[in-house]
Amino acid sequence: MTYYYETAPLPTWLAFTAHHLPVWWHHFESRATLVLELVVPFLIFGPRRARLFVAFTFSFFQICNAATANYGFFCYLAAALNVFLLDDVDVERAGARAAKYVPSALRPGMERLLSFRARPASALTEERPRWKPVVWLGGAAAALFVLVSLTDALFAFTEPGRALTLVAPLFELNQRFRLVNSYHLFASITRERIEPELQTLAQGDNAESAGAADDDRRWTPHYLWHKPGDPRRPPDFVAPHQPRVDFQLWFYGLAFGRREPTYVTTLVERMCEDPAAVQPLFREPLPSHAAAVRIVYWRYVFTSRAERRATGAWWSRARVATSRVIVCSGGAQ
Known about the structure:
Largest sheet: 5 strands, antiparallel
Low-confidence stretches: none
Order of helices and strands: HHHHHHHHHHHEHEHHHEHEE
Number of domains: 2
Distance between the termini: 49 Å
Number of helices: 16
């Protein structure tokens, strides 16, 4: 957690404040997350008060996630699931309180939407077949077994032992139907933030000599709307919108030494051949006819509180590498 707020794909300006909290607090966050994700969920099967506690805790967790990083609509959908932890009476009470702040024209519709009554618990008990709890428990046990087996295989980093060999058919079934997925916000927390920056060379400059001399003054950087970009620009709030290219480039920065993915090469080609098509992605105007495009990779870290007060910069950055120069068709040689 001492790295998370700084290295999240699209942090908000509140992440800067969270990043500079004391180290002991970050240690507490790590341990609290384990309790929240591994212990608290079992209270879902408890009585009403336990479920209300889970709903409040999970909702607060998603609010913290949404406040410090932009994950599109992920946090909102995860928070919406907590409605199913509430009883009918809880929903009605919350709706009655919210109705006071709803415009009078919409209030009748909202009241009709919330004016429902569930059947008595006794009626539900009478109609429930006796075999259903057995099926539910068996299904839950099977899902838990598959989850633990797959987690052990994913994170043990060892050769498959006897236990994993026995569950090999479950692995094949999972691969076919995607019964269990290891997806989370992060499979692991990265410790550095590498940001690719797209730059263009003006028409008329010698692209090859510019690449050899590495004369930065001849290259113009182009910042995307929601990437860190200019160190003096504060991180913004953009969720629930998901700026796909901005988000994906974070993953590319983690593996910039590998081959460029298709969407990166396509973006570079469009900057050369059809800049108007990708102009909405960038804050600054793209040149109508660039001579060349290159990618410069920077390591970004949050500045200290004192540095931000003195310079106004939210980020401090250092160059890591520069890609090859891509000469645009028709560019000067």
